[in-house]
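User: Just a sanity check before I run the rest of the batch. Below are the structure tokens for the first item. I only need the designed sequence back.
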């Protein structure tokens, strides 16, 4: 079957390890289902895989892709929850978790095999392309806001780096939940788009906000860390799920953190129950993922190049 996969690790030039070509189709195994992939979306996690983060050379070649929606062996339209436990059936309390492409082959292929437990029904109101955007970046944003940030309707939230998948998801989800959303971006057009999505206002990175916020959604890392900490009210919460600009800020702002009793919360992906709630939230409110572009799988390299360059607003989706 045709697939986009990591053939080798290159930490400096990750796209050098990206290959497009034939890979073996998944073989049947007890408790697992083979899904015919209709759509899959790109995530920064795929670039990190090509850099060797979360994977070792002995697991290559590895088909990339965490997110997908498709049709299972019984003809059901499904969405894949991509967090898999050691046993391949959920994640127990003492069980190490894994994401597709770390231990198991990913979704950038004509077919993917996942534990049957990891399948959720696709709501009829969502297209395959929309549904494929939800299990990683949108689920991450959902958990950051509604599980880890501790915010309530009416609270204010700053989203750093408007344009990325998690950032755009957070703006849309927060607006729909009655939060006052603010955003930052280096790009004027992206700031304008953020406001169109529902942000009260959008600013250049490092700009002084009209007031300190209750929570910050942080995925950029080193470049925005100091600004994120300084933007919080006393007792506020910074939720971080990524560090695309690096994980070693020059100013950790430790004094401000302890003096103002700020909370720093790490957040990774989300649970199957949270994904089910997210699907229901989209159905109930009518909100939909922000899709920048839809490309056929054989143009995956183009999508990777745009994601690596930050030349996107929302998600890039690959179709078979």
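Assistant: Here's the designed sequence for the first item:
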């Amino acid at each position: 079957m045709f697939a986009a996969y990591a053939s080798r690790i290159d930490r400096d030039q990750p796209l050098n390890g990206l290959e497009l070509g034939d890979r073996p189709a998944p073989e049947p195994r007890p408790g697992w289902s083979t899904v015919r992939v209709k759509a899959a979306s790109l995530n920064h996690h795929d670039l990190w895989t090509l850099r060797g983060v979360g994977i070792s050379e002995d697991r290559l070649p590895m088909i990339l892709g965490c997110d997908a929606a498709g049709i299972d062996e019984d003809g059901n339209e499904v969405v894949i929850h991509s967090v898999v436990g050691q046993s391949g059936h959920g994640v127990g309390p003492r069980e190490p978790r894994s994401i597709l492409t770390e231990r198991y082959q990913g979704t950038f292929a004509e077919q993917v095999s996942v534990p049957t437990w990891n399948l959720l029904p696709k709501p009829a109101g969502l297209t395959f392309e929309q549904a494929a955007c939800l299990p990683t970046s949108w689920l991450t944003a959902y958990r950051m806001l509604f599980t880890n940030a501790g915010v309530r309707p009416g609270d204010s939230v700053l989203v750093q780096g408007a344009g990325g998948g998690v950032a755009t998801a957070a703006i849309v989800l927060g607006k729909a939940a009655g939060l006052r959303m603010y955003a930052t971006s280096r790009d004027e057009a992206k700031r304008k788009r953020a406001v169109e999505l529902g942000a009260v206002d959008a600013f250049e990175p490092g700009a002084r906000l009209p007031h300190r916020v209750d929570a910050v959604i942080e995925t950029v890392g080193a470049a925005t860390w100091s600004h994120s900490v300084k933007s919080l009210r006393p007792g506020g919460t910074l939720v971080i799920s990524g560090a695309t600009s690096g994980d070693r800020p020059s100013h950790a702002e430790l004094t401000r953190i302890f003096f103002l009793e700020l909370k720093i919360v790490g957040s990774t992906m989300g649970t199957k129950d949270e994904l089910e709630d997210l699907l229901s939230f989209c159905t109930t409110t009518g909100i939909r993922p922000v899709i920048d572009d839809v490309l056929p799988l054989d143009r995956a390299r183009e999508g990777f190049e745009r994601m690596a360059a930050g030349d996107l607003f929302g998600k890039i989706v690959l179709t078979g």
